[in-house]
Here is the input.
Amino acid sequence: MKSPPFEYHRAGSATEAAALLGELGFDARILAGGQSLIPLMNLRLAAPGFLVDITHAPDLAGIGANGAGLHVGAAARQRTVELHAETLAAAPVLADAISNAGQVPVRHQGTVVGSIAHADPSAEMPAAFKAQGGTVTAQGAGGTREISSEDFFEGYFTTALEEGELVTGVTVDAWPSGTGHGFLEFSVTKESWPIALAAVMVHVDAGTIDRASVVLGGVAEVPLRRPEAEAILVGSAPGAEVFAGAAEAAAAGIEPLSDSFGSGAYRKKLARVLTRRALTTAAERAGGAT
Amino acid sequence: MSTHDITVTINGAATSASVESRRSLADFLRHDVGLVGTHIGCEQGACGACTVLIGGRSVRSCIMFAVQADGAEIQTVESLAPGAEMHPLQEAFRRHQGLQCGFCTPGMLLRSLELINDNPNLTAEEAREGISSNMCRCTGYQYIVDAVLDAAAEMRAEEG
Here is the structure.
């Protein structure tokens, strides 16, 4: 089908976008790459009255790393971020997540921040962002504020953004050397939507895991952190038994929904297996091997 | 509803038009510009039939509004063979029977062109992975992969 009618506005900067959102009111939405929004509009599942296009705002296009982490602007395209040398160095789990998301032509157009702000709990980028940790920068008429990746996702397609705010960028926190990441998803074909996914990070110091992050996607209404699994990992030496125990803990207590792609019980099994395998990969990478 | 004046370059020619905000780039190309080589399949970004190149990069023109393309350089399948002679990719698709009904072919050709431009020495595996963005319900893909590899070889020879 075709999109329902709407009024199009183009913002030349983040400040202009925030002003437009404030002026147009509750029925206005940000249009970045549109790769989630426009299909929803074509399917008539969304019908915003106003769209504010931010992809022509030069101040939102940037990608750059410093010691604190990797900054991704709201207009930066997924494929650009995925192939960016600084992403591979500072946030390889995000690069892995992007390369698993959609297809290349969709990633040419779609944005990383758009996917995070869309907050689909099954999607790759929100889970990877939460696994590595970081902050969302939100801008509204009243100024800017930072929201932690832990607090940003509140439910299905629901975030901590207030009416009139847009996400101008995200910063993915740097982890020290000795860190490894694992990102694994299971889907019917490589192109199809993930049934479940695991995004993990471990830091190994002198043979002991001293920091760990385990996040699951597709099993709850948000990308789901698994503190029980992290508690098993921290203080342990990396090894098959520890990873199996952490994976058990990650899958324990979750109650995923069933759909035509898999039952809740199947998703739960996937969560365990994907976590174990992702941890194994992460520990190998933390040890310097690739 | 709003309407907007846009200027785009389509297959090398500057084109100005007034478009409704909700006009998809695919509908703009087909109905306003008359370039009906761009096909519309699913209209939700899944099938790839509407693939065009913007600045040399493949995008789904059914999930992009024409107004978003303002200022862009767009290449459609019509650019491949402006005259009577087919492009080496089109020749290879014909030779290898890389098409049957032809519906996916414009998108397949443009995505394949991008793949070969990115990597003229692409392997069968890379070609298969690369075209996985586009659906074909006739060929089973094998003949398309054969055609892409053959066309890449020919284009390398022409370059060399």
Summary: The longest strand of chain B covers residues 3-10. Residues 88-159 of chain B form a domain with the DNA polymerase; domain 1 fold (CATH 1.10.150.120).
